[in-house]
């Protein structure tokens, strides 16, 4: 990314900032879902997007470490990526189920 490089921000710092921001977003979404002020469909969409961003953030952070910690961070990123895919599929299924129920007389 050009802007962080121009400002002198390393990839690891950018990744850490993005990771913390998305953890806060996921925490708020979980709180709202548990309290009942957010639908399951909205929650799954936020989890999907948040998991993808966390995976990206962890891959940025992995540039600052090497050896076993790097392998662990990349493995965690892969886990978040798969979580994003599963949450996205569940979100898509819930959308198609809602649409079918609305169109069926």
UniProtKB/TrEMBL annotation:
User: TM spans, by residue?
Assistant: 12-34, 46-65, 71-92
Q: Which UniProt keywords apply?
A: Membrane, Plasmid, Transmembrane, Transmembrane helix
Task: Look up the domain of life of the source.
Answer: Archaea
Name of the molecule in the record: Uncharacterized protein
Which species is this record about? Halobellus limi
């Amino acid at each position: 990314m050009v802007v962080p490089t121009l400002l002198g921000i390393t990839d690891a710092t950018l990744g850490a900032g993005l990771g913390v921001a998305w953890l806060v977003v996921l925490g708020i979404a979980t709180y709202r879902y548990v309290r009942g002020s957010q639908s399951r469909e909205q929650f799954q969409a936020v989890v999907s997007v948040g998991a993808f961003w966390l995976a990206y953030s962890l891959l940025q952070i992995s540039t600052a470490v090497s050896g076993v910690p790097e392998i662990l961070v990349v493995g965690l990123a892969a886990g978040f990526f798969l979580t994003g895919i599963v949450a996205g599929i569940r979100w898509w299924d819930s959308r198609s189920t809602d649409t079918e129920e609305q169109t069926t007389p």
